[in-house]
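Continuing the batch. This is chain 6 of the set; chains 1 through 5 are on the previous pages. Same settings as before, nothing changed between runs. Recording input and output for traceability.
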Amino acid sequence: MAQKHRILARIKSYKDTISLLKKRIRLLNDKIIDNGDSSVDSFEEGEIRETDPKEKRKSKHPSKTKAHEVSAKVEEMAVKAKKDINVFLKEFFDQINSMELSVQKRTLEKVSSLLDNTEKYTILHDTVLFARVLEKYQVFYQVLYPEGIEKDGSEVSAALSSIYAFISGAKSEKDVKKEAVRLLDRGASMPVFTATTIASNAFDAVTAIRLYSKVLDWDWTYNVFVREHLFSKLMDTAATFPAYVLSILYTEWNRSLAMHKSLEYVLQTLDRIAGIGSGENITDSSYTLEAQLASVLVVRQFRPGAAVKWQKKRALECSPSEKDQIDSLWKLVIV
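Output for chain 6:
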């Protein structure tokens, strides 16, 4: 009998405790409502929560928050594209290696209808040159040209198409290398300069070679393309295009590689073509004035003092028409 009374007493004590807890919960809820926030989670009886309920809810769906951030960034970039496509392109490539691929892909999907063919080419071209992850090229290409690239007969359009085929596995590395070498062979005797600028077909060809080189890496570019093919073309001192190609390849790889003996040797070759000797002394060159210009217009980025000396010395030595050519082309910036 005594045991029964003890059990009944415990039951009553538990009920009193539950009643007290419910009362305290109601009081706490009333305080929250009085403070102007009625959006609270329901509490289990007796549960104690130290975390703010709103903070708890915020962490329940991180994917929704992330999706919102992505959408906001895409919309921000799209607005910039509508206002000024050049501003958009600059910002897009300022973040080419920091912006998430999902954001870049959705951004291009959003603005693709605003881009003309030249701007699409620019995006693919700069992706090859500046993206650390080359697979981005494949994604961008598929967004910009879902039916395949709109070839316009240029060497650049052919290169962009070949690079996509290579990255996607439809074309072998060997075939891409052959295309680069064939392009050099076809353009070996091509004129590089007009009276005031670079000839469009020379610029087109050297840009395509630059793209192939970047995809195939410096090891192949120097050891095979330069040493086995380009140097033999430079034996012809009247040929300007090979000097132009060497200049562009040096500019590109000097930007993206740490200084290496192979790069130093290429620069020494450009010096020799221009007639820049040790101590930046200007010497005679066996190459034509056009070939020297193709070299020195690049060398001046790295050795401005030597380039100025070259300009002054050649201007004193050459004919009036050649001086006019130097003065006119000296305004060019080759990058």
